[in-house]
């Protein structure tokens, strides 16, 4: 891994994605990131990447838009020269009762959490060489659902577990790995550590505290590096023991 590597982090404007972008840059990787609405927050993440001495690029791309997802991968390659690490992180948190679920909500969630991940992996794999990494941010709710209202979210996050196993087989022969990182409760705008559900979530966590986004970024950085060389077709849970 002598040449400077390039990563694309989807949903890198804030939360876990922003922490991943900054950490990969600190590890010597140039970073492109996508965002949906938060242009200024995305620009701030790019500033943090460049402060680490790396090149950064922000691309507006709604993950629900199939063409925009593929275009973001292509722009990464055009402007930063290559793609070595794809981090599928962009996500939403629909918490809705089964009775209230709409077709539009189902379609949008699956488009962002599943279709975009397949398309980004397909587009990135065309350019990746030996050592490529496809890392998808799942959720520990894919394995165990502790409350009602989470069926759609859990289903969408479970889908990427199957996808990741398939990608490991599709791409293993080219030395490209595919792995899911499954966070538990992580202190972001999606799930603030002082939010209305936080005490309930915290009570299930063995270590008694939420993840910091840097906890997820650390695992992604490990997998993106040499340590991840032989980790593929599987998921790694980072949830402070909530699933123990
Ligand atoms: P945040 O809500 O803090 O950030 C979400 C990020 O995703 C933002 O950068 C946002 O961009 C981007 N995003 C959302 N929708 C789209 C879209 N349609 N197209 C492009 N980008 C989009 O969430 P987290 O950082 O907490 O979550 C990141 C990932 O981690 C998600 O996949 C989530 O499901 C997963 N996760 C989070 C957990 C938690 O407790 N926080 C637990 C388990 C998993 P913009 O700023 O432009 O809106």
TrEMBL record:
Source organism per UniProt: Actinoalloteichus hoggarensis
Keyword set, alphabetical order: Oxidoreductase
UniProt key word Chloroplast: no
Cross-referenced PANTHER family: OXIDOREDUCTASE, SHORT-CHAIN DEHYDROGENASE/REDUCTASE FAMILY (AFU_ORTHOLOGUE AFUA_5G02870), SHORT-CHAIN DEHYDROGENASE_REDUCTASE FAMILY PROTEIN
InterPro entries: KR_dom, NAD(P)-bd_dom_sf, Sc_DH/Rdtase_CS, SDR_fam
Gene3D superfamilies reported in the protein's UniProt record: NAD(P)-binding Rossmann-like Domain
Transmembrane domains' residue ranges: none
SMART domains reported in the protein's UniProt record: PKS_KR
Start and end residues of each Ketoreductase domain: 5-219
GO MF assignments: oxidoreductase activity
UniProt-listed SUPFAM superfamilies: NAD(P)-binding Rossmann-fold domains
Keyword Oxidoreductase: yes
PROSITE patterns on file: ADH_SHORT
Name of the featured protein: Cyclic-di-GMP-binding biofilm dispersal mediator protein
Family under the similarity heading: Belongs to the short-chain dehydrogenases/reductases (SDR) family.
Top-rank taxon: Bacteria
């Amino acid at each position: 891994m002598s040449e400077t590597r390039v990563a694309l982090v989807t949903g890198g404007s804030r939360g876990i994605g922003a922490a991943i972008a900054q950490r990969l840059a600190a590890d010597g990787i140039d970073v492109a990131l996508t965002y949906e609405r938060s242009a200024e927050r995305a620009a701030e993440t790019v500033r943090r990447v460049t402060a680490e001495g790396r090149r950064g690029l922000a691309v507006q791309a709604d993950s629900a838009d199939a063409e925009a997802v593929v275009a973001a991968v292509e722009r990464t390659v055009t402007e930063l020269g290559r793609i070595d690490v794809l981090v599928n992180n962009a996500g939403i948190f629909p918490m809705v009762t089964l009775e209230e679920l709409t077709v539009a909500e189902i379609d949008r969630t699956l488009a962002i959490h599943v279709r975009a991940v397949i398309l980004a992996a397909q587009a990135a794999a065309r350019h990746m060489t030996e050592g490529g990494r496809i890392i998808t941010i799942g959720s520990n709710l894919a394995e165990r659902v502790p409350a009602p209202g989470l069926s759609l979210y859990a289903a969408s996050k479970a889908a990427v577990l199957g996808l990741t196993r398939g990608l490991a087989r599709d791409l293993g022969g080219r030395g490209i790995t595919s792995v899911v990182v499954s966070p538990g409760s992580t202190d972001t705008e999606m799930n603030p550590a002082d939010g209305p559900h936080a005490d309930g979530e915290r009570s299930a966590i063995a270590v008694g505290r939420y993840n910091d986004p840097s906890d997820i970024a650390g695992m992604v950085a490990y997998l993106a590096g040499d340590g991840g060389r032989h980790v593929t077709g599987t998921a790694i849970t980072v949830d402070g023991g909530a699933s123990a």
